[in-house]
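Section 3.1: Structural characterization of target chains.
Under the original work plan, the team committed to producing a structural model for every single-chain target entering the pipeline before any wet-lab resources were allocated. The record below documents one such target. The sequence was received from the expression subgroup and is listed exactly as submitted; it comprises 169 residues.
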Amino acid sequence: MAIWSTDRWRELSSLSAGFIFATIWFDMMFDVKLIDCCLSECSLEEISSKQTVISAYYSQVTWYAPPPMRILLGFVMVMGIISSYYSWKRHPFLWFLQPLLLAIVSVMAAISTFPACYWLGHNPPEPEKFLGSSCRVFTEHGFQLGLVFLHILLHLFCVKQSNLAKKRN
């Protein structure tokens, strides 16, 4: 097996998707603290106490993180898109669907989610505005998580089909 065979690209694609999934899941666990406030009325004290925890988390992962860690997720996202393409470039529809799923997640993260998380951690707004921003970030994390999960399911299904085809030959 060559160093950059299709199987190696698929392994890299799986690794990238798993890392992105874990990162979004971890972020979402902090956002879950605000679900009850998004769905019902919460006092300003409740929102403020939850804001303190969430802002502290986001400030550590965005504002105070060392420079290599700030670019790690972006690098993994780009590698995920590239490896998804190369691992399925001969497949009839996965050659564009797999990279597209990760590209949508990456673009959403770059345009909306990361800047919102950055400002939630660096300069938290008033509790009412904070609640709106956090609920939006939670919704985006949920959508991104769904896309990455779909990417992983498609990947696993097609790897299994590919392995079955290899055994038949």
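The chain has a mean pLDDT of 78.
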